[in-house]
Fold:
Amino acid sequence: MEIAKTATKNVLFLFTADILSKIINFFYVVISARFLGVDDYGMLMFGMSFVEICGIGLDLGLSAILIREISKNESKMNSYFNNVLFIKIILILVTSLITGLILYFVNYGHDLNIIIVVLFITAIINSFALILTSVFQAFNKMQYVSIGRIVSTLVILIGAFFLIRIDVNANAVDFAFLYLASSIVLFLLSLLIYIFYFKAKIRFTFAKKHWLNIIKLALPFGISVIFVTIYYRIDSVMLKFFKGDSEVGLYNAAYNLIFALNFIQGIVITSIYPIMSKLFVSSREQLMKLFEISIRILAIFAFPIGVGTALLADRLILLIYGEKFIAASSSLRVLIWALVFMFLNVSIANLMNVVNLQKIVAYQIIIAAIFNIVANVFIIPKYGAAGASFTTVLSEILAFILLLCFSHKYNFKISRFTILSVLKIVVCTAIMGVFVYFVLNLNLFVVIILSAIVYSVLIYMFKVIDKNVIKLFLKLILNR
Structure:
């Protein structure tokens, strides 16, 4: 009973802490965008996108392997961690050399070059923090992951307030240094937890056979990381090339709202990934049950968010970013549907990763990324940020179709009951959408609250999730 109570507290703590960190980060995004304006904000966002693409070699799936393998055998924590640490040092050296050569031959100007260098150093520090927090996640110590997120986002937010207060002429370069400060704090905090709580000794271990095994396991994850990063960040780079900083700023204003809402699926997947890894060894039946419950839970959130945001896009952008960013509403209205499919896709991709079919996830990401790049070449020059939003949605739909086909091929089929539940959710969402349409002229917050009440009542009436499903979900979580 005491174990169950402790586990329940941990789950609630994770949920609360993750929401808090996302709220903090959301306020930072709003403050920085409003202060910098469309062009400077676009420059900062381009710098981040450029660094993320150049920095894809900093991890290459190593953190995912740490989580999965330590979850299966906790006694091998030190062995895996120390070998991964040595591999990561080599990856950092190679990636830094490549990034330096790119900056040398492609001169983006003084300010943007500084932004890129500062953010790249930030990415290196974050990559070390990532393998530390991966250990926390493997041991289901999610509270430490969440504490790190909260503290690091607080550093950025407080830093932004302080920066704006002391320097009204602060620019994108100054804001880039906030990310560096945040990464240093996160790394030091994670390192202290790792050393003192886990009683771990950090060593650089060279074991050729172990290295080869880790690299072999991580390679499919690494390929996925490469193409996921390209997939999600190439839009900003191409917008900069074809349209300039202004379009990058508008697109990312909408895009950051999507990622702010993406915390919901992050909480669900982060919580169940280690559990599903263990169930893969002990019970395939329970694994599939948890997988299908996760689809229904994510669908319950995804569809109403999509419809509500599409209908209220203009008012949301005006409220959050102000009139300077009002043109971003067209991107948000389209881009929100990418979030709907992200929610569905992550459930299936999570299952594929757990059952050692990460190569399937890699295949669909590669195909979707190539499609996204090719489509953007034709669409961005004419339609700018709105066009980039449209290609992102199409890419997510393509990824969803591919994941469904692959999951069925390998006999991980979604049951008719779950499909019927999702259809019920779509019907409930459609009814809610009609309601929102007729009350659009009311106060924005009133509209959101009333529509949430209507939707909740409909979900209850259609019996999308009953008490037995909730009990099973809690049982699987608490008995992890």
In short: Residues 10-206 form one domain. Residues 1-8 have pLDDT under 50 and may be disordered.
